[in-house]
Design a protein that fits this description.
Strand content: 15-25%
Radius of gyration: 19 Å
Oligomer: single chain
Structural class: alpha/beta
Helix content: 25-40%
Strand order of the largest sheet: 3-2-1-4-5-6-11
CATH architecture of the largest domain: 3-Layer(aba) Sandwich
Number of domains: 2
Number of strands: 14
Number of helices: 10
Bound molecules: uridine-5'-diphosphate
CATH class of the largest domain: Alpha Beta
Length: 323
């Protein structure tokens, strides 16, 4: 197939583009490089530099590339920042996303795989979280993604735009060539690995008094290649739908740090800090629906395997993409 990966220079988009190319698809990448990196664009892809803020740019890319489907990763994705600057989140994730959908309708592109998030649920009443759980986001980031999910539903109803929205839990790990590098790093695994690389002196643990076995937050870390495989399966889905995507396993902050110690051989000093605002104690996905309906199976179940792949990438590219 011919796929336009919007936001394909970012962490998740770059690995999806790579896997699509490995599987013989033809790939275009549209990215404004605000969070993404030019070097994260697979050299086999056709690159369109542009911003979804400008509908003419995305429409021109669609006319030029003529994709059969779009994967949409271009969004602002930091919970904390969204609590300080909600306008950025509603504008980028909803208003600019609408430019993409309208350009797709105008050019007759009828399929989209959308990068959604477990943040659309808010603090869960129970875990694991399945697709029937109530969606009550507690920050503008989750709200903006939930709004876009609803918009997709209506574009399907009215314009026949077929969508699959994948609600990821914690994306982690790397492929051989592409990994996690954010301009401002707030995520746990890259922050711990930066200590092992000697680029940070210690890692902060945000909260040790949660009601979890070791007092730290539990997350469902899913390998980026497993995520990418889910996107490719979603392209083939016959109907529009929403799927939660995680491994179903939970790993605490302390367990992540211990795994990093084991893999890197570095002692990784920690400093215990108060809780970070907006962090639910435990987020774990129920992914039975996507397993049943699309035949997805996670290949990386162990946190050690996920962290090993991230560590390999960070050692290969200690300065990331260098921009
Ligand atoms: N965390 C931490 N120290 C860090 C970064 C994150 O203790 O330097 C914790 C964070 O509070 C959360 C978990 O690690 O409980 C995962 O955070 P991350 O930002 O990686 O992902 P999130 O779950 O917020 O999407």
């Amino acid at each position: 197939m011919k796929i336009l990966v919007v936001g394909g220079a970012g962490y998740i988009g770059s690995v999806c583009a790579e896997l699509l190319l490995d599987e013989g698809h033809e790939v275009g990448v549209f990215d404004n490089l605000s969070e993404g990196h030019r070097r994260a664009v697979d050299p086999r892809a056709t690159f369109f530099e542009g911003d979804l803020a400008e509908r003419v740019r995305i429409q021109a890319a669609l006319v030029d590339f003529q994709p059969e489907a779009v994967m949409h990763f271009a969004a602002s994705a930091l919970v904390g920042e969204s609590m300080e600057n909600p306008s950025k989140y509603f504008r980028n994730n909803i208003a600019h996303g609408l430019n993409l959908l309208d350009a797709m309708v105008a050019t007759g592109v009828q399929r989209i795989v959308f990068s959604s998030t477990c943040a659309t649920f808010g603090p869960p009443e129970r875990v694991p979280i399945d697709e029937t759980a109530p969606q009550r986001p507690i920050n503008p980031y989750g709200e903006s993604k939930l709004a876009f999910e609803k918009i997709l539903h209506w574009y399907d109803e009215i314009h026949g735009l077929r969508f699959v929205a994948l609600r990821y839990f914690n994306a982690a790990g790397a492929s051989e060539n592409f990994g996690e590098e954010h301009r401002v790093e707030t995520h746990l695994i890259p922050n711990v690995l930066k200590v092992a690389l000697g680029q940070k002196s210690q890692v902060e643990i945000y909260g040790t008094d949660y009601e979890t076995p070791d007092g730290t937050c539990i997350r469902d870390y899913i390998h980026i290649l497993d995520l990418a495989r889910a996107h490719i399966l979603a392209l083939k889905s016959a109907t529009s739908d929403f799927y939660n995507l995680g491994t179903g396993g939970g790993t605490s902050v302390r367990e992540v740090i211990d795994s990093c110690r084991k893999i890197t051989g570095h002692n990784i000093p920690v400093v215990e800090k108060p809780r970070r605002a907006g962090d639910p104690p435990r987020l774990i996905a129920a992914s039975e629906k996507i397993q049943r309906e699309l035949g997805w199976r996670p290949q990386f179940q162990r946190i050690d395997a996920i962290i090993e792949s991230a560590w390999k990438w960070h050692q290969k590219f200690p300065n990331g993409y260098g921009d």
